[in-house]
């Protein structure tokens, strides 16, 4: 992992927006909630013990701006000390900007990713079969369903036609049917942030990054800000069986969020988030380079619809939740043999970026090689209590 700089972290407009995050403080052996400003990084944990608590404010951006906090250092130095290689454990480093919120993810929210899920299902996790199946699925369904509204009469008519042709799929059900796929991505507090290693199951041989917008939502269902995410996916596991979704999605270090939380204010709103273009770059030690992107404007379900299908009278999240919105990125570029498609190799550097949110950078390792996750909810509560913050 190369040393990160502020340029690798901040949005294009720098600290003009309201930026929050989390930093590990060695002197207290625990995390701090911080405000990232032009004149440094400020610990505001005395006012907001958790990011979750900040997001519960009526206006989180105004609430954060009203608290000066204690300056703990320059952003440049903290960012440079974040990557696990060469980290000085006596100095602060960045964490993922999420804590007590439940980690949720929506799947099959873009037409192109929906088609790839159908292909995964039919290939039964075998990348060698994918190309032939891709041509057949495209022949039956087409390659542009972006204007098809999920749950509409037109979508239900297509469903009946595809069932008659024996071409229906569980992925088409959640892609164009009335009910969105929303699942729990990983345990609370298990996310890794920018500069850290992200994890792949060691038995996976067909996998890919998923560049996504991550919404931060309060316990009342209010969307208060956004960040970037990598919903690391194992195509072979999920392709063999949808019942392996938890193993395909939830492994040590497989949930990456960052670099910071940008709260909604007059510089960045939900409408701005709806227009985000998210870029992806994968650079391997073998010289392989993969570029991709995901445009939120092409999502099949509006973010507010996905949030409404996640929280309400049927399901509550007292500490709020974050929601990965899915991706339109389809990893079809061959890396090795023709027709084999893309899969990660050890030490791939994945960069997910958006001008409004900065860059999320991770090195890919197997989950058993990544730093073990040891600081859970109990440890956080104990640490905050010892610091007399709760």
Any descriptors?
11-stranded mixed sheet, 390 residues, 5-stranded mixed sheet, FAH, 12 helices, Fumarylacetoacetate hydrolase, domain 2, 2 domains, alpha+beta, metal ion binding
Fold and architecture overview:
- This protein has helices at residues 51-55, 60-65, 75-80, 111-123, 130-141, 153-164, 170-176, 235-240, 245-249, 270-274, 303-308, 377-386; strands at residues 18-25, 30-37, 40-43, 70-73, 93-95, 102-107, 181-186, 197-200, 207-208, 211-217, 223-231, 233-234, 255-263, 277-283, 289-295, 321-324, 349-354, 358-366.
- The relative contact order is 0.19.
- The protein has twelve helices and 18 strands.
- A hairpin with a 4-residue loop joins strand 1 (18-25) and strand 2.
- It is globular, with a radius of gyration of 21 Å.
- The chain folds into two domains: 6-107 and 181-387, Fumarylacetoacetate hydrolase, domain 2; 111-176.
Low-confidence segments, ≥5 residues, pLDDT <50?
A: none
Rg computed from alpha carbons, rounded to a whole number of angstroms: 21 Å
Number of strands: 18
Mean pLDDT metric: 91
Name of the CATH homologous superfamily of the largest domain = Fumarylacetoacetase-like, C-terminal domain
In CATH, the architecture of the largest domain is: Alpha-Beta Complex
Family: Belongs to the FAH family.
Organism: Bradyrhizobium forestalis
Keywords: Hydrolase, Metal-binding
GO molecular function, one term: hydrolase activity
List the helices and strands and how they pair.
Layout: E1 18-25, E2 30-37, E3 40-43, H1 51-55, H2 60-65, E4 70-73, H3 75-80, E5 93-95, E6 102-107, H4 111-123, H5 130-141, H6 153-164, H7 170-176, E7 181-186, E8 197-200, E9 207-208, E10 211-217, E11 223-231, E12 233-234, H8 235-240, H9 245-249, E13 255-263, H10 270-274, E14 277-283, E15 289-295, H11 303-308, E16 321-324, E17 349-354, E18 358-366, H12 377-386
Parallel strand pairs: 6-16, 8-18
Antiparallel strand pairs: 1-2, 1-5, 1-13, 2-3, 3-4, 6-7, 9-12, 10-11, 10-16, 11-13, 14-15, 14-17, 17-18
């Amino acid at each position: 992992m190369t040393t990160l700089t502020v340029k690798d972290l901040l949005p294009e407009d720098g600290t003009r927006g309201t930026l929050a995050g989390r930093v590990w403080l060695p002197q207290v052996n625990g995390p701090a909630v911080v405000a990232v400003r032009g004149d440094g990084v400020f610990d505001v944990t005395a006012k907001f013990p958790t990011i979750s608590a900040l997001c519960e404010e009526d206006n989180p951006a105004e609430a954060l701006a009203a608290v000066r906090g204690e300056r703990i250092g320059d952003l440049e130095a903290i960012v440079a000390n974040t990557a696990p290689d060469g980290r000085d454990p006596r100095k602060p480093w960045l964490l993922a900007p999420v804590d007590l919120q439940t980690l949720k993810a929506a799947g099959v929210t873009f037409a192109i990713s929906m088609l790839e899920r159908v292909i995964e299902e039919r290939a039964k996790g075998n990348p060698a079969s994918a190309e032939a199946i891709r041509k057949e699925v495209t022949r039956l369904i087409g390659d542009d369903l972006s204007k098809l509204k999920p749950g509409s009469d037109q979508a239900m008519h297509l469903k009946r036609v595809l069932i008659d042709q024996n071409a229906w799929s569980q992925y088409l059900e959640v892609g164009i049917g009335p009910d969105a796929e929303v699942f729990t991505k990983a345990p609370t507090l298990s996310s890794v942030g920018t500069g850290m290693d992200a994890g792949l199951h060691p038995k996976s041989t067909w996998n890919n990054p998923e560049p996504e917008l991550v919404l931060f939502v309060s316990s009342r269902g209010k969307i208060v800000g956004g960040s970037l995410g990598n919903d690391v996916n194992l195509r072979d596991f999920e392709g063999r069986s949808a019942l392996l979704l938890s193993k395909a999605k939830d492994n040590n270090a497989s949930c990456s969020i960052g670099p910071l939380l940008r709260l909604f204010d007059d510089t960045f709103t939900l409408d701005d988030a709806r227009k985000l273009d998210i870029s992806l770059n994968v650079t391997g030690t073998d010289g392989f380079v993969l570029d991709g992107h995901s445009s939120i404007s092409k999502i099949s379900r509006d973010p507010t619809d996905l949030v409404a299908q996640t929280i309400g009278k049927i399901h509550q999240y007292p500490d709020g939740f974050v929601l990965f919105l899915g991706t339109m990125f389809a990893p079809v570029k061959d890396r090795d043999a023709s027709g084999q498609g893309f899969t990660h190799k050890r030490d791939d550097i994945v960069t997910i970026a958006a001008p409004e949110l900065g860059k999320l950078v991770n090195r890919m390792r197997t989950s058993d090689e990544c730093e073990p996750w040891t600081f859970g909810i109990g440890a956080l509560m104990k640490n905050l209590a010892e610091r007399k913050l709760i």
